[in-house]
Design brief:
Two copies of one chain form a homodimer. Chain A is α/β, with parallel strands linked by helices. The first copy, chain A, is 30% helix and 25% strand. The first copy, chain A, has ten helices and 17 strands. In chain A, strands 1, 2, 3, 4, 5, 6, 7, 9, 10, 11, 12, 14 and 17 form a 13-stranded mixed sheet that branches. In chain A, helix 6 packs across helix 7. The radius of gyration of chain A is 19 Å and the shape is globular. Chains A and B meet through strand 1, strand 6, helix 4 and helix 10 of A and strand 1, strand 6, helix 4 and helix 10 of B. Strand 1 of chain A pairs antiparallel with strand 1 of chain B, so a sheet runs across the interface.
């Protein structure tokens, strides 16, 4: 199969896709707490059992991730064998949730690690691959699980340790998308559910690749502060590279900055003379009710941005409620080893431009 | 900058690049033990200090990785600001060697995890990006460090634990390459050292993306056995997708199967009626002298395939001693958590076709 494509390199860290890249389908799977939150009705699947029928927290996360991927592939009316390659990652050491999750689906697989920015990295590489003609259908997915993340980064749940108000709550959730080079279509009416609202769909029109930004912060219970400078850098870079104003986007959605990180992001951008107060939303603030759910600064984790993207963001773009948005998942690059050795917590954020299109 | 490209999708998991993709430069940095091995004279830098002047094993690995990247960029006559994006990863939890290594160089960064197959993943994504016109110069690199890996996956070095003969020795080393869309050229004669032997250089002409292969093996001290089935799958897929015989390659080089894994790979391929005895070499068997260096089954780690690629493989292709080779780094997807929870150790291997070209 031969395919002609044209790329436009924009500025110093962005790519504008001149060949169409579509989000064919998307799916989200979350846990009980997320299901009780403001987006409860928007998720495809809410599992009451935090173990997702498995024996360990890690296996639970892998099961949830595979379920989200299978749902997304099914909604597109495809089989795993129709997927040319998959880009996936998670927060666990050696991304084991993905190694024992999506990697096991028999799809040519590229494992990623971008901490909580991984959905942005996954979407970026999938869109780059589709636009370049490397595949008709490419899968991207990420996941996180509150219990596997607490075990990986903090304390055994049994300790019931205190959490400061700056701490975020790792989302138990997974989001997956199938990216393709043709607009979504109802393969089997009634049986499939591509990302199509009336005649509206979602195009990936550009990306801005994140750079590591390190302000020397070391508090793993204030990840929002660690990631905000990276979100600022990527948003600013995106506006410069594409020569846009914040008002050129209906929304600018960060991944999991939470209350603290959001405030810092807005301040940092204001220092550059840029106001995104009107456009900005944070997936970590959308997924939980901060008043009643005791999640302190908000939600976090790879699964936060991914599940909110699939459940809340993409449908609003497809429907035309939003014409163009900038999706900016944010990651805090730490491990318990680097943290315990006194290293700072650098941040990275990957930007993806998503636009409404009538088919 | 606009660019026209044409891709050829080959078979079910491979891509043949019809636009030229060149290895502009490469560099390797290793530790004392690797410097004492058969390839000692081929490495760019051998550091006698296992700490690489740092305070921790992890920081040592990050320092070594940054050094390899800086050397490679410098040999190409470029500055980090000339690099459009970087693809890098390592074995540590949350790929922290890369987060505190190459990610800190201010280059738009995509973090990867493919265990010891990461150099294949990194080269594949860099070549895909260059061929698609996403950048003129893209960096790929990986690293591993014996001490940081033993700490991450096995026992504190102080224990002096026994190692079975099937165990491999994690290479303290890093390899980096700059991939570009124009042949390498002497930017500043005498000052730069691009990958150019007389008029010969190296092209990346194709890739085969690996799938996870799980035979249910659980012995983390016999990684060769865990990875051999994946190497078999990728090599077989590559030969089918490109319609080639083993003799169409001057060499088929796996990453770190070692003595045990090599034997299993040859047996598995023989069962499929394919003999690669004449072409096969393993980076893990090339880097140490098994007789005198007490490395048991051979070398392993992300840095093994990467350092041997930069020091031994690429120069032989550039010189024309080898016209076409298949580079197949192999990864064992385990974490200490999944291992301790009794999960198997699946393998994955990514194939990259490298060819000699006269400029």
């Amino acid at each position: 199969m031969k395919q002609e494509i044209t790329q436009q390199l924009t500025g110093s860290a962005s790519i504008a896709f001149t060949k169409p890249v579509y989000v064919i389908s998307c799916a989200s799977v979350v846990g009980k707490k997320e299901g009780e939150g403001p987006l409860g009705n928007d998720f495809d699947l809410i599992c009451e059992d935090p173990m997702f029928g498995s024996d360990t927290w890690e296996a639970a996360e892998s099961t949830m991730q595979k379920e989200a991927a299978a749902l997304s592939i099914g909604k597109a009316g495809l089989a795993p064998s129709d997927i040319r390659m998959a880009f996936a990652g998670d927060l666990l050491a050696q991304t084991s949730a993905s190694s024992f999750g999506i990697a096991g689906m028999g799809i040519p697989f590229y494992g990623l690690f971008g901490a909580c920015s991984t959905m942005g990295e996954s979407l970026s590489l999938a869109a780059m691959s589709v636009a370049a003609g490397y595949g008709d259908h490419i899968l991207c997915a990420t996941s996180s699980h509150f219990a596997s993340a607490e075990k990986e980064f903090r304390f055994p749940l049994g300790y019931g340790n205190q959490r400061p108000l700056s701490a975020t709550w790792t989302v138990t959730g997974s989001g997956a998308c199938v990216i393709g080079n043709k607009p979504p279509s109802e393969k089997i009416p009634g049986k499939t559910a591509p990302l199509l609202v009336k005649n509206g769909c979602v195009k990936v029109t550009g990306i801005t690749t994140g750079k590591l930004v390190d302000y020397g912060l070391k508090d793993s219970l204030n990840m929002g502060a660690c990631m905000a400078p990276a979100a600022c850098d990527t948003i600013y870079q995106n506006l410069c590279d594409f020569d846009r104003k914040p008002s050129d986007y209906d929304r600018i959605l960060t991944g999991d900055l939470g209350v603290v990180g959001k405030r810092i992001l807005l301040d940092l951008l204001n220092e550059k003379g840029i106001g995104i107060e009107k456009q900005h939303q944070d997936c970590g603030l959308l997924i939980y009710d901060g008043e009643t759910q005791d999640t302190h600064s908000g939600g976090s984790g790879c699964g936060c941005a991914a599940a909110v993207l699939a459940a809340y963001i993409l449908p609003r773009i497809a429907s035309g409620e939003w014409k163009r948005i900038l999706f900016v998942p944010t990651g805090a690059l730490l491990s318990k080893t680097s943290f315990n050795e006194g290293e700072p917590i650098p941040g990275i954020a990957h930007g993806v431009v998503l636009e409404h299109m009538e088919v």
